[in-house]
Amino acid sequence: MKRLLASPWLYAAAVVALMIALPFIVGQSGYYLTVFVMASLYVISAISLNLLTGYGGQVSVGHAGFLVVGAYTAAVLSTKLGLPFVIALPASGVMTALISLVIGLPAVRLRGHFLAVATLGFGLSVPQIALNWGSVTGGYSGMAVSRPDLLSSDLVFYYVVILFTVVITWMLYNIARSRMGRAFLAVRDSESAAAATGINVSFYKTIMFVVSAFFTGIAGGLYAYWTGFVSPNDFGISTSLLLLAMIVVGGLASITGAIIGAVVLTFIPHFTESYVGVTDLIIGAAVVLVILFRPAGIVSLGELVRGRGGRSDE
Fold first, then answer.
1. Contacts by 284-289, CB closer than 8 A, 24 or more apart
2. How many other C-beta atoms are found inside a 10 Å radius of the C-beta of residue 278?
3. In whole angstroms, what is the distance from residue 256 CA to residue 260 CA?
4. pTM score, two decimals?
5. What is the separation of C-alpha 145 from the centre of its chain, rounded to a whole number of angstroms?
6. What DSSP element (H or E) covers 57?
7. What is the C-alpha to C-alpha distance for residues 100 and 107, in angstroms, rounded to an integer?
8. What does the alpha-carbon distance between residue 53 and residue 252 come to, in Å, rounded to a whole number?
9. How many Å apart are CA 73 and CA 166, to the nearest integer?
10. Please, where are the H alpha helices in the chain?
């Protein structure tokens, strides 16, 4: 019985069951469905970023730029080219991955704060490109995005988002536990040592960017379809910093930690939106407190209770 209760799959099944039941608990409220969907999209983005930063040691301060690329790709393909959802959504991930490849190839030569500055530049430039490339993106006016008829219901689309969240989480979990994930950890711990053991450091650093960007682009595409509108101001540098805060608060190099951090920091604004400036203050305080007292993140509290100290999980 103890072994069953300790099974991560049991907890995962319980979480999925709760996600399925949530719309009925809140009376299918459009507001709460939006909050739940945004939490799910941030879960995808946070896990993707954690694969890059937590497992790979590559600090990205402009990850929201990938959300922008994914959202606009889905918007352009569906609105201007009339492509169906089943093509436009995967294409949003592919386009984001291709752009990340262009960034990743020169970025593999950078480390530490140099890489952070480079990704910051990317995160700042993408919204500006969307703002000024009016013939494609609509510029200041943004772009309207129409959902397919089968997904016109918020409740149906909510379950589609949940399905994508579960599948992508499972895929990233398996990547983290695979030989590729172990190579990421080796590169994070020491690039020189990894190269000495035969690991192609440049290749794996590029793969980190591509895989992370692909799934973040999917999240951006889902956002575009859910909101029905995309604008250059949807994901700014503050979103990139929020994603970083999510994985730090939840726990670096931990899939569970990224999920916890994404959910907690998505719901904080819901409870503090009526107080000006309080949301940023609470999030900032949470980051500082975690760094000072639980550097392994909130997820390490569970391991502390089980008597395993602060070791992060996969």
1. 286/245, 286/249, 287/245, 287/248, 287/249
2. 14
3. 6
4. 0.92
5. 21
6. none
7. 10
8. 8
9. 23
10. 2-5, 8-25, 30-50, 64-75, 85-107, 112-132, 134-137, 154-177, 179-189, 191-196, 201-227, 237-250, 255-272, 278-293, 299-305
Per residue in 29-61, pLDDT (tens digit) is 889 999 999 999 999 999 999 999 999 999 899
Distance CA(23)–CA(36), nearest Å, equals 9
DSSP one-letter code for 111 = -
Alpha-carbon gap, residue 7 to 229, rounded angstroms: 41
| 115's tokens | 């890489």
Whole-number Å distance between alpha carbons of 58 and 2: 38
> Taking phi first (over 0 means left), then psi (-120 to 50 degrees means alpha), and beta for anything else, what does residue 82 get?
left
Q: What is the pLDDT of residue 311?
A: 45
CB atoms within 10 A of CB 87: 13
